[in-house]
Each structure stands twice: as structure tokens, then as C-alpha cells.
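User: What would this chain look like folded?
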Amino acid sequence: MSHPLPTGYREARMSVAFFRATRSRLTLTGKDVPDFLHRMSTNDLRTLSPGEDRMTIFTSEKGRVVDMAHATGTGEGAILTASAGNGQVLSAWLERFIIMEDVRIADRREEWGCVHLVGPDCPSIVTRLLKDSPRISPVREDLGSVPGFLLGSDTEVSRYPEMDAATYDILRVEEGVPAFAREITADFNPLESGLKKYVSFSKGCYIGQEVIARLDTYRKLRQVLTIFEFPGHTASDLAPGKLSRDGVEAGIITSTVFSPSRGGWIGLGYRMLKNDGKDLVMMTGGGVAPVPARVLKGLPEEYESYEITDDAE
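Assistant: Here's the prediction, encoded as C-alpha cells.
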């Protein structure tokens, strides 16, 4: 079955396109905000300066992801730009640990309507936008290897092609970018999700630090984020499912898309077995035959020294 090229896909790959997105935003004020966020999340935020943005991850005591967010310094505290629909959860999580600190979370925990501008031409376009409107406050958020910026929904971008959610998801999966509530959940830790670049191993203690540091020290992970392909699958759709090999659980597919660049179906998910070249199958349920699956791309080279094992905790 043929799949027409989605609107905005080519432009996002070759020049620029945008997607109308939503994020949760929390405003924190008080003199202790930088130190508090530094102790609550994985990245080094103690020296966060006004206008500076750093991505960080909030983890539970077990090292599992609560959310990941941009922390932007304001001079009076910080703004957290977190996953859509998760503002109340993140706010409640942070408030649990505010004891004597001078930290206040604004009552208005808003959903921020924004546009995600993505494509190779993004940096130069945002530079021009800043010259015309210095107050637009772009937040850098690449989509894997594709440059990207979050901008306010009132930013004038109508001259560029607009992607729908399905097209945006295709780019995300092709780039191996985990999404909240799919690949980023309380079932996984930042190392398994390919988010190691947002984890500081020299900053000292934070919630979940002991678990994450131990996994890194012993180079053991239970599963790793992986891009899969489904050779020979020609149906018009493909739902995610669990992976199996020789009757043994081998992981889970959490997102599936038809990839124009590959000319076939691919998926993003977690692999629980070493990639030894052997094919897997995805169990689809409902009486439908299992779908052959194969590893297309794993995590960066820095993960090659990790062992995938059930005793990684």
C-alpha cells in the first residue's frame, strides 16, 4: 500500500517546518530555587543564569523518570517547561521536598501553547526572529539530529509548512527521540531511555542519584531504547506490541510509524536482549500473526560498554 509523503516532512528534513505543540510550565521563585532544582534533578543547575536554558530530568527514589524539563533561569528563580499534561504531577512531586527552602511554585500551573520549529534552517530563522522580536524567548529543543526551537504560539511562522501530529511523530521515531507517556514513563530510567547526556555524574546527590550512579558504575542496564524495523510488513497500519525471540520476552515496541526515508514501517521501543543479529517478532494480539522485527539502530557508541541483564537494578 502506498503512503503519500506527509505535509511538512520534506521541509523539516531539508529546510524548516513547524508543529503546534503543548508543554506544561511551572514558575518557581525564591532565592533557593537554583540550589533546590540542582538537588532535585539530574543536571547541574546550580550555576543556571538568567535566560540560560538547560534540560534536566526529575527521577524517583528508584531512579525512574518523573519528567524531563527545560529549566530556564529568570533571575528570580526559574521556569520549568515540562511534558504536556504533566504539570500537576511534577508540581506535586517538587512540593514534597520543599521544607525550609525559599522556593515557591506559582499557583498557575499552565499548559503552554507553543510551536516547535524544526529543520536545518531553524537556527538562522530564529536569529532573524530575535532581531525583529527580541522578547520571543526561544527554547532550544532539537528533534534528534534535526535542529529545533520551541517558540510562543503567537510567533509568526505561518510562512512555513505546518506538520500534523502524525508527521511530527514520524520524524521523532526516525530520530529515536523518546516521548513522554510512551518511551518516557516510570517504567524506565534515564540511561535506558538514551538520556545520559542530561545526567551529571559529578554534581553530587539528587533524588534517584544512587540508583543511576550504580547502574553506570557497573555498566548494567535491564533494557535500552532502540529503533526497530519490520521488514516485509506491508499492511496499512501497525500497532505497538511486545517483542519476543524464541519464546523469550525480548522487549517492547512503544511507537510505530511508516517511515518515508526507509520506505517501510519502523518502531521505537526497548530491547532487553543483546543485539546479536537474530530477528525478533512483535506480538500483535487479536489472533494476528506475529510481525518480524529487526534492530535498525541502537543507542550511541557510549552505551556499547553496558551489559543488558535482568539483574540491573
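Residues 122-132 form the longest helix (11 residues). If you want, I can go into more detail on any region.
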